[in-house]
Amino acid sequence: MTPKNLFNIILKIFGLFFLREIVYTIPQLISLIPFFTKADDFGGEQFSSGDIVPFIVTLIAIAFYVYIIYQLLFNTNKIIDKLKLDQGFNQQEFSFNISTSLILTISLIVIGGVILTNEIPNFCKNIFSYFQEKDLSHGLTKPNYSYIVVSGVKIIIGLLIIGERTRIVEFVEKREDRKEEENEIE
Question: Which long-range contacts (CB under 8 A, 24 or more apart) does 101-105 make?
Fold first, then answer.
C-alpha cells in the first residue's frame, strides 16, 4: 500500500463520518417544517418568518456537509495532491496489504453501529415519554410523536448503512475509478 492509497482511505473514512452527520441533521430539518406556519386568533394559519431562520441555517449546514462529503469521497486524489500529503514518505514503510474496500466496509459497519447505539436508547425513551404524556393528559392533548419518528428513521438509516455496505463501497469505488479515468484523459 502506498502512502497515497493510505491517505485516500483515510479521507474517504472522514467522508463517511460526515455522511453520519447528515443523518443526524436531516431529521432536524424535517422537524422544523411544521413550525413555518402558526395559527392566528381567527383559526387560520399565518406564515412566521422567525421560524424560517433555523430552517435556512440547517439547510446551509446540510449543503456544506454534502459538498465536503462529495470532495472527501470522490475527489480524494485532488485533495492529496493539493495538500501534498503523500510527499516525504519512504515507499517501503507501508508493507501491509489491505484492500480499500475492506477498510471502507469496516468503517461503514462502525458508523452504522454508532448510529444504532445512539438511537435505540433514544427511541425507547421517546416511546416511553409518548405513552407517559398520553396517560397524564387523559386524552385532553395530543402527545408529540415526531421524536419517535425521527429516532425510527435514524435507526432505519443505521440498519441500511450496515445492510447495504457492499453497494455503498461499490458506488464509492466506481465513482473514484471514473474520476481517475477522467483525470488521465485530460
Answer: 101/169, 101/170, 101/173, 103/9, 103/13, 104/9, 104/12, 104/13, 104/16, 104/168, 104/169, 104/172, 104/173, 105/165, 105/166, 105/169
Q: 115, exposed or middle or buried, with CB in 10 Å at 0-12, 13-18, 19+?
A: buried
Nearest CA-CA partner of 3 in 118, 63, 90 = 90
Model confidence over 84-108: pLDDT tens digits? 877 777 665 566 677 888 888 888 9
The residue with cell 489491505 is 98
Residue type, 10: I
Residue 89: give the domain boundaries.
3-185
* Nearest-angstrom CA–CA distance, 99 and 108: 15
Domain count, the chain: 1
Q: Are 12 and 75 in contact (CB under 8 A)?
A: no
**Which stretches in the chain have pLDDT values below 70?**
1, 28, 31-51, 90-96, 179-180, 183, 186
What is the reported pLDDT for 94?
62
**182 CB-near residues (< 8 Å, 6+ apart):** none
